[in-house]
């Protein structure tokens, strides 16, 4: 239904992007091709080589577009243009790098010209594609009238999503027994459920979205039966929408629909890919930064004495404990009682319904921190020994923040979902305003990361982490 249409739209946008990129590069070659060298090489290579080269180049650019979430915005606007600009800039740099590695001898001015042309070309082609899709949906045999059963926050949210997406649905209003005469975004509450047969006769091909997840089961069955009797195609929002831990997943076993919470996407082959990258990257980093590790260890030893490393018990994947390594930044005889009280307040002050509670702030003014420790913390140099934990398999480069044992004692049941993956040195929560997030918001980001994990998302998080480190914001 919606998901299928959105996937098809994504394919159409990818095709339109490919056409736009072809036009941008063709125009760039016509504007700047010294002595016609590239034209001559392309035509001499033959059509097969030309097609292969173009498909490889288009594949690279489309992969970057996908990694930059350029296909997640359906309504256009400034946000889409910014993402397209970012994707085109990254893809242009990768094109220059590929040109250097495989010695294609593509003019740099040509690539820069293609980059400058690609942004307006892709934007214009997307506007054209979007308008074509919109006009297609307006066709008399395509446009589908839709009535929403229920008038509540869930029904209104559903209405917003339908209106904000490119779909074939035309909303006619709501039906609800308890909200006559009301309206939402100009759509009226037409009446109670008894109006459904009249609406079915008035709007041929009518569909109904049953959005009353809090209603008793017999009420939902009555609505579905009424739709069946009037040949109204229906679909329903299940009561499981109230599950606080994340999104739902629907699977079909035979003819039986199975609905449940989405699990971690870091399973099977995905886990192996992530682990291989962690092992290779952490090993190389340890090799390259070994002088920094040695100097940092020497600084801790000279200014603060022994021990150099601080070992702290943390909770890893599936609740397994491990010793996390850091350079010591506090006095050796430090009591952890202040931090225990702080963590308890941070978690317990979240709203009863899981809404925003106290925001998280690192204890940067803690008197227990040494003078050298303040410098190490500012640039996250104290975190470098955690690369050893990554090599051991106890941590990952990217993942949820490693929890403390006394922290997990305060968790609600759904909070434990963040323990379904190997904890990370950095992660989605750490780069999403860590000093302004409540505990509930942090957990939701961790669950979102697990459910939507991809290798490209890990690369994006790493790319956003490095500037924060250079600015001294820490991770």
Explain this structure to me?
- There is one protein chain.
- This protein is of the alpha/beta class and 475 residues long.
- It folds into three domains: 2-137, no CATH class; 144-242, Rossmann fold, CATH 3.40.50; 269-470, no CATH class.
- Helix content is 51%, strand content 13%.
- It is built from 16 helices and twelve strands.
- It has helices at residues 2-31, 37-45, 47-67, 78-102, 108-137, 153-164, 196-202, 217-229, 269-288, 290-304, 337-348, 371-378, 386-392, 405-408, 439-451, 455-470; strands spanning 144-149, 169-175, 183-184, 187-191, 207-210, 233-236, 248-253, 256-261, 309-315, 321-327, 396-398, 424-426.
- The strands form four sheets. It has a six-stranded mixed beta sheet with strand order 3-4-2-1-5-6, sandwiched between helices. Strands 7-8 form a two-stranded antiparallel sheet. It has a two-stranded antiparallel sheet with strand order 9-10.
- Helix 8 links the parallel strand 5 (207-210) and strand 6 (233-236).
- The chain is flat.
């Amino acid at each position: 239904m919606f998901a299928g249409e959105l996937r098809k739209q994504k394919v159409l946008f990818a095709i339109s992007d490919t056409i736009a990129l072809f036009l941008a590069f063709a125009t760039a070659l016509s504007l700047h091709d010294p002595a016609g060298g590239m034209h001559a090489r392309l035509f001499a290579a033959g059509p097969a080589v030309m097609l292969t080269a173009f498909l490889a180049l288009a594949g690279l650019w489309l992969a970057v577009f996908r990694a930059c979430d350029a296909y997640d915005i359906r309504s256009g606007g400034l946000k889409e243009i910014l993402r397209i600009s970012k994707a085109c800039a990254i893809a242009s740099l990768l094109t220059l790098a590929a040109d250097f590695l495989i010695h294609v001898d593509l003019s740099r001015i040509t690539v820069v010209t293609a980059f400058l042309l690609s942004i307006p070309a892709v934007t214009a082609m997307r506007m054209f594609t979007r308008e074509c899709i919109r006009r297609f949906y307006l066709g008399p045999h395509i446009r589908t009238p839709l009535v929403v059963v229920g008038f509540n926050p869930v029904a209104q949210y559903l209405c917003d999503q339908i209106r904000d997406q490119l779909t074939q649905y035309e909303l006619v209003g709501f039906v609800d027994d308890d909200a006559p005469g009301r309206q939402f975004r100009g759509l009226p509450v037409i009446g109670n459920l008894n109006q459904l047969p009249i609406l079915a006769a008035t709007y041929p091909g009518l569909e109904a979205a049953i959005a009353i997840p809090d209603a008793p089961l017999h009420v939902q069955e009555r609505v579905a039966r009424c739709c069946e009797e009037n040949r109204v195609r229906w679909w329903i929002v299940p009561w499981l929408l109230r599950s606080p831990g994340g999104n739902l997943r629907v699977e079909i076993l035979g003819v039986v629909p199975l609905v449940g919470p989405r699990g971690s996407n870091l399973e099977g082959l995905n886990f192996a890919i992530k682990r291989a990258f962690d092992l290779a990257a952490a090993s190389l980093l340890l090799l390259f930064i070994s002088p920094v590790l040695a100097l940092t260890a020497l600084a801790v030893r000279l200014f603060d004495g022994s021990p150099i490393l601080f070992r702290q018990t943390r909770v890893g994947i599936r609740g397994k404990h491990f010793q996390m390594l850091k350079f010591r930044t506090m006095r050796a005889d430090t009591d952890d009682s202040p931090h225990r009280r702080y963590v308890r307040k941070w978690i317990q002050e979240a709203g009863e319904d899981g809404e925003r509670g106290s925001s998280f702030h690192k204890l940067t003014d803690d008197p227990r921190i040494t003078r050298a420790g303040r410098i190490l913390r500012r640039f996250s140099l104290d975190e470098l020994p955690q690369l050893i934990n990554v090599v051991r398999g106890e941590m990952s480069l990217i993942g949820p923040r490693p929890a403390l044992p006394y922290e997990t004692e305060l968790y609600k049941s759904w909070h434990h979902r963040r323990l379904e993956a190997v904890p990370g040195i950095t992660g989605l929560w750490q780069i999403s305003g860590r000093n302004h997030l409540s505990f509930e918001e942090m957990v939701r980001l961790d669950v979102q990361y697990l459910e939507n994990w991809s290798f490209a998302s890990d690369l994006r998080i790493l790319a956003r982490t490095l500037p924060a480190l250079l600015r001294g914001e820490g991770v």
